[in-house]
Design goal:
The structure is a homotetramer. Chain A is built from 7 helices and 9 strands. Chain A has helices at residues 12-21, 45-54, 71-92, 105-108, 116-138, 168-173, 186-197; strands at residues 3-7, 26-31, 38-39, 59-62, 96-101, 143-149, 165-166, 181-182, 203-212. Chain A has a 7-stranded parallel beta sheet with strand order 3-2-1-4-5-6-9, with helices on both faces. A two-stranded parallel sheet of chain A has the order 7-8. In chain A, helix 1 links the parallel strand 1 and strand 2. In chain A, helix 3 runs parallel beside helix 5 (116-138). The interface between A and B is medium-sized, with 35 and 35 residues. Strand 9 of chain A pairs antiparallel with strand 9 of chain B, so a sheet runs across the interface.
């Protein structure tokens, strides 16, 4: 049975990916939570070295991230640790697939007038995406390096900055709620990741962005 | 029956999309060829105005492009005409989906050391992509504005610059042919476009890039 | 005496550049205005061909642009015509310097939530900038291809969208006017262009962006 | 006397900036070398905290970087540490100027077919540049946040990957040496940084790229 290693695999999108891949892969989750198969803090260089030493995954889902007013923590986990793991597993894996989970904020927020917490989050995710694309286009190994940039997804992480984000059902039920942003569900993002993984051997999706509708439209 | 308008719809990716959408949509193709439902030259402002006046498509596939050593022709058709049609149909359509067909060259070739024909092609396609993303993220209308950037695809267009591009079958049969670039097939790109169109109402894919493998790997 | 050809050379930034270069160069201005040395409409392919046939400038300042609710006009003049002239003079000139005048809107506005007039303006200017950078980095001719992206400048062009843009003096005099955006003066941009042109032979400035302060700060 | 804090200030571009600013500023240099006013390793979170606690510079030149086959070291120093210092000094300084020193490789190399050492270097520098631009455009403080991206400069750092880079003099003396890349001199980059710092109060240069000529041209 092939091995899928998933960072941030106990919550949100990472958990949804773990659940969906478990049908076909041996799944190992990494997270700070004690529920993880490999509990630990990815911003710790030794923990990253331990993981790279121990595992040679067929699928590596580079997903762990946090949202915090401690910018240094975000820069370390979402940026440095994710990019470092990407290089290390890219160099260790003989083949297979790497899915980097960036963010739509890396597409459009990072140059707009945004509060600093969004800038710090977006530029770290953009760093991950740029490195993902660079390795994908370098083409010096038969590894599929792909990057998905989900929009606001209905997870715990988004709650601190999310008062106008609402679940899909609420968005469509409350017909007067024009200011709501409809969040994608974690399993929907996970299904798209699965679709990317299942492409034929000769097709790579180096970049896929998901957005969600801002407005409810009556005759849409 | 809903209407799908497809520019460049008589050959290559556009034809494959027309064939696949015809099962569910009334399809109108636009191209310079007499085989098109609406034959004409899209770089002609009057022809564009005629199309916009006559049609209000549910799906607009903004696909027409050419590859030519007449750079002005490429700038006019691939850049100006495509961007102008995008604005015009975006403003006319009350809702629905627009698929802009850009190119992977707009992702990675335009800042590298490339011959001018590739630069002129890539920057025009990047212009289309940037405008597509801008309208998608402006979110002022319930229209899904999406952009797909295919890699080298097995069409007539690529032949003049393609001596090391080969079809999938040849790529995998000739085990010593490491310098070949395996081309995607038009129907594969068309199926991905169909997948984008068929997303649930609340999911938009503003950007999706397809790449193909450079090398054949034995144990891939 | 060396020749400097300046499109949009009768008003705004273009006029300021013409005034400043006239001290050392024979200056030829191109514009729709009858005051231009070469009056004509750059969106006309034949007029562009005429200019390219007639002139081989040492300095080509690719500056003409307009701001209009007729998006097609902007796409044609600011995008297509400017990019076409860039390729044509790049290929004709044996050496020398090309200065493309893009816009800061091409840096930061094109992916934000902007009204369509700003999107159409910004993406056309981004098209010019991307092509400028691509030719600069292709390095196949000893031509210095440079791009400057000015912020809001105190010219006639900006007036229709400019109610909160104010001249430098007003910005600093009215101490309570915190919502004003301080505009750069045309001659300041022209002096920076002159600085770019005067760099030593081995130094190229492929990209320079000018921004202006949003807020007045007391102890700045 | 105003204070200028310069990381990487004992060698290369940083030293040239220190030398040039010392005429008007009290200069404090930070580097791993014992020659620095503040010797230490910037990838150490505590050393960064110490610097931010101790200094409130008028000019902060965020310049320290290294080139190494230990990618983790580059990711930590060139990416994480530089971005973290940028946020921390941006938040501590009441006004003044921050100059982030990125690299032309962040402009054009990171998506081309490059060896991994260049990718790791370029994407970390791009991370710094993207964060610099984001803070510059957020405009919520009267701080001038600027970014300069020099081309290959004649410093010790470039030697390991530089067999075809040559000093300006050699480039112009050896008339048959067409494959050489002419390096900028550190003091030339420092003078451009000084020019950026000396702009009038209302003019910011959020982005300036320096490139150098690839080819020697006889009649250039």
């Amino acid at each position: 049975m092939k091995l899928a290693l998933i960072t941030g695999g106990t919550r949100g999108i990472g958990k949804a990916v773990a659940d969906i891949l478990r049908e076909e892969y041996k799944v190992v989750t990494v997270a700070r939570s004690s529920e993880a198969d490999e509990p630990g803090n990815l911003s710790d260089s030794k923990f990253r070295a331990y993981l790279v030493e121990k595992y040679t995954p067929d699928i590596f889902v580079n997903n762990a991230a946090l949202l915090s007013y401690n910018f240094e923590e975000m820069i370390q986990t979402n940026g440095m640790a994710a990019v470092d793991l990407l290089f290390k597993f890219y160099n260790k894996m003989p083949n297979g697939t790497i899915i980097n989970v960036s963010s739509i904020s890396a597409e459009k927020n990072f140059l707009a007038r945004e509060p600093q917490i969004r800038i710090a989050y977006a530029t770290a995710k953009k760093y991950l995406k740029d490195t993902s694309l660079s390795l994908a286009y370098s083409k010096n190994k038969p590894i599929k390096v792909m990057c998905i940039s989900p929009a606001a997804t209905d997870t715990d992480m988004i709650k601190p900055i999310s008062n106008n984000y609402v679940p899909v059902e609420e968005h469509y039920t409350n017909y007067n709620y024009y200011n709501s942003i409809c969040m994608t569900r974690p399993y929907e993002v996970a299904n798209i990741i699965k679709w990317m993984i299942e492409q034929p051997e000769w097709i790579v999706i180096p970049e896929l962005v998901i957005d969600n509708h801002y407005e409810k439209s009556v005759n849409w």
